[in-house]
Amino acid sequence: MVLHxxxxxxxxxxxxxxxxxxxxxxxxxxxxxxxxxxxxxFDLQHFQLLQADFYRDPFWTWQRSAIVSLFVFCAGLGQxxxxxxxxxxxxxxxxxxxxxxxxLLVSAGSYLMFPKSYIYFGILHGLALMLLVxxxxxxxLARVPLLTLGLxxxxxxxxxxxxxxxxxxxxxxxxxxxxALNWLGxxxxxxxxxxxxxxxxxWGMMLWGLTAGRWALxxxxxxxTPCLSGALFGRLAWLGRWSLSYYMLHQPVMLGALMxxxxxxxxx
Length: 268
Hints:
mainly alpha, 10 helices
């Protein structure tokens, strides 16, 4: 997830990074900012400082879907760059192990806070699986872009065809609703968990990001791409390069700050 590590004393500038990576980093950084605002509102609701229903209100559920879509789409763009750079398996597994390891930490941390609805297959778990599947299928995904787009569309349509499948099966597919198989996403009802990002439909968004990335790289290959600049762009790109570290730290920091604030406000 981290494309490169700048010196500790350098400002968040991206003039030295390849332009095709700057844009992906900045887009990922924008997703991080949006996610932070969303999670901060969730934390406020958790401490009863905000009245909101994050599980049923479309204002919040659609935002969650849009944020996850943007994250996974950016991961697909990143895979397009990895394909072009002929990334080897050693480098892939080095980054993949970071994502998978952080997913396990998220499960452990969420179990302490939400033991009855802890995160056993959230966005990091989903990303780890999607990256692995995409890497294994890289050979034919790279050669047949139209098929990749069609497969992505089929994956994105999973909520509709899976629901119809469960209705027609009259309960015979209940096993897909259990944690043993609901990571696939072929479910008839949503599981009780604080975050849920199964292979389907989200792999479809990664496939679309992969296709979009390969198309953009093809167009840029024979042209000189201008270096994007600007203070806001630079900070977003810097944040995007450190997305995994930021993801793991932002909630503990915000929760700790809110708990400290409430403790200071409490009557003694």
